[in-house]
């Protein structure tokens, strides 16, 4: 037997209630509401809130507080989206609400988000992803056949021929094979096994996954992770979260941020006194420093890793972003191969790439991959297990990654437009890299190394002693003080160098070169005027 269905204002009981529910004890007044359908449900909600919040007359304490929070989470810092960016958002909102400032807009030069800065998508990439997402477009004459062919091939590798399905945890098989073919072509014949390719949710996901495999131990046996300083804050954040030991090696600013092998040995020997260094991370081309490492430098790093038995992580997401004519991107894998079988068959290497940078700038797709070589087979099984926990990377991102490694060829219909768009993006970035270096170096108290690659300038700024003292009195880093002033007076949002790491006594900021050439000129002009005014204010123009 069941009770009848009740209806009362604001609530509908769509199911008949079993008779046993009639005799159940009252829970937060629900029995009364059922037996008296005219009762006001607002009071029932209020009663529930009070009852849930009190226990024996006392307010219930929260389980998760700052005292009980995982201490490794509290240790994480990520400057690229830190206090400066939060402040920039507040100013933007203030301006939108009619507030007045000495400027009309906030120019966010803090992050390498190409499309947010106005870069247009590569047409062919968007066509292929659109076709994969909505296959009915295959019948449209607006889409070229070379895009349709790629979309059909990708969909054939997806469950149910749908981008809405899960893929295998390492990624769609045909995309992994395309990536391996791309790597072989890029590295001029160096073999690549598609089963060593793993699709990731952006390069960051792959980097975090490999670090999780490497980090272990307690006290003096904790894993040491060697990272360049300045570095991309993902690395320091991951090391803090995993309770590993950050081992800094400093890039040579006076030599265009080159990597000094003697500095590697110094950092390694010092770290061995309190941890177990297991891995060395390299970012090439560099972020935030914009340098492109020479082949000789890469050989020295790989020899160092071979001798000290270190796992190598090579962050190569900017491999298409090389602007200086006398610089060339060399993959760590190719250099390792050219060093001979003794190196190529033994040094453990994970290399990372992404849809977010290069000439596509497709950050939002969160596409990427890693190639892992010389990993112990049993550990490789553990890697696959770890990847399985997160099911699979987004399939739209996998499709976008496939277009990057399998672009239109010269004999295909879309090649001409694709080549024009790619060349236009990279040519504009090269022009903006040169412009940024020239304008900043003309400002008293600013020194900027050539932006050889990537998407950023990392100029060194002179901050007068009086300004340093004022910053310290306010409890902040001098370059944070400088960047906050720059934001509040000009609307320009850049990231202080202290968020990336720098030698003591030096100060920098990172800015992206992604804004349009017109907006970049405005930005650089405002930086110049602000810096001169800042020096005058603190009596240090000399």
Automatic annotation (TrEMBL):
Pathway field: Amino-acid degradation; L-alanine degradation via transaminase pathway; pyruvate from L-alanine: step 1/1
| Cofactor names | pyridoxal 5'-phosphate
SUPFAM superfamilies in UniProt: PLP-dependent transferases (SSF53383)
Aminotransferase class I/classII large domain location? 161-525
Physiological role: Catalyzes the reversible transamination between alanine and 2-oxoglutarate to form pyruvate and glutamate.
What the record says about family reads: Belongs to the class-I pyridoxal-phosphate-dependent aminotransferase family. Alanine aminotransferase subfamily.
**Which protein are we looking at?**
alanine transaminase
Q: Which organism is it from?
A: Sinocyclocheilus rhinocerous
| Taxonomic placement | Eukaryota, Metazoa, Chordata, Craniata, Vertebrata
């Amino acid at each position: 037997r069941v009770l009848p269905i009740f209806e009362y204002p604001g609530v509908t009981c769509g199911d008949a209630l079993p008779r046993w529910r009639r005799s159940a004890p009252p829970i937060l007044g629900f029995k009364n509401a059922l037996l008296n359908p005219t009762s006001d449900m607002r009071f029932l909600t209020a009663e529930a809130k009070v009852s849930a919040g009190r226990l024996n007359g006392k307010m219930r304490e929260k389980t998760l507080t700052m005292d009980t929070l995982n201490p490794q989470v509290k240790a994480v810092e990520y400057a690229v989206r830190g206090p400066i960016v939060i402040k920039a958002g507040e100013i933007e909102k203030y301006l939108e609400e009619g507030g007045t400032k000495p400027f009309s807009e906030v120019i966010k030069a803090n992050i390498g988000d190409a499309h947010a800065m106005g870069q247009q998508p590569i047409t062919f990439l968007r066509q292929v992803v659109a076709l994969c997402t909505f296959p009915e477009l295959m019948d449209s004459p607006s889409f070229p056949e070379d895009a349709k062919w790629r979309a059909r091939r990708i969909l054939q590798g997806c469950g149910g021929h749908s981008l809405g399905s899960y893929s295998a945890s390492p990624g769609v098989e045909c995309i992994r094979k395309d990536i391996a073919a791309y790597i072989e072509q890029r590295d001029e014949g160096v073999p690549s096994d598609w089963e060593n390719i793993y699709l990731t949710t952006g390069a960051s996901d792959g980097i975090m996954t490999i670090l999780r495999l490497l980090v272990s131990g307690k006290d003096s046996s904790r894993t040491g992770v060697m990272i360049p300083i300045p570095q991309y804050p993902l690395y320091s954040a991951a090391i803090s979260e995993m309770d590993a030991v950050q081992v800094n090696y400093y890039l040579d600013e006076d030599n265009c941020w080159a990597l000094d092998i003697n500095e590697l040995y110094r950092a390694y020997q010092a770290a061995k006194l309190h941890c177990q260094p297991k891995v060395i991370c390299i970012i090439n081309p560099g972020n935030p420093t914009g340098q492109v490492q020479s082949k000789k430098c890469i050989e020295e790093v790989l020899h160092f890793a071979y001798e000290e038995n270190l796992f190598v992580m090579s962050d190569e997401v900017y491999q298409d972003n090389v602007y200086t004519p006398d610089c060339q991107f060399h993959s760590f894998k190719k250099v390792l191969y050219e060093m001979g079988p003794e190196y190529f068959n033994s040094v453990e290497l994970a290399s990372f790439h992404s849809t977010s940078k290069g000439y596509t700038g497709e950050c939002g797709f969160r596409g990427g991959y890693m190639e892992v070589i010389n990993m112990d087979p049993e550990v490789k099984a553990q890697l696959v297990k770890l990847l399985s926990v997160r099911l699979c990377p987004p399939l739209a991102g996998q499709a976008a990654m496939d277009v990057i490694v399998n672009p239109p060829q010269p004999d295909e219909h879309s090649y001409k437009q694709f080549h024009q768009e790619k060349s236009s993006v990279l040519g504009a970035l090269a022009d903006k890299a040169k412009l940024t270096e020239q304008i900043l170096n003309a400002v008293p108290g600013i020194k900027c190394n050539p932006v050889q690659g990537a998407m950023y300038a990392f100029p060194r700024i002179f901050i007068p002693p009086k300004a340093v003292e004022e910053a310290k009195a306010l409890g902040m880093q001098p370059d944070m003080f400088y960047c906050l002033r720059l934001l509040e007076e000009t609307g320009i949002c850049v990231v202080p160098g202290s968020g990336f790491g720098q030698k003591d006594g030096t100060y920098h900021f990172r800015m992206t070169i992604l804004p349009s050439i017109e907006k970049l000129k405005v930005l650089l002009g405002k930086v110049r005027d602000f810096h001169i005014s800042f020096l005058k204010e603190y009596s240090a123009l000399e």
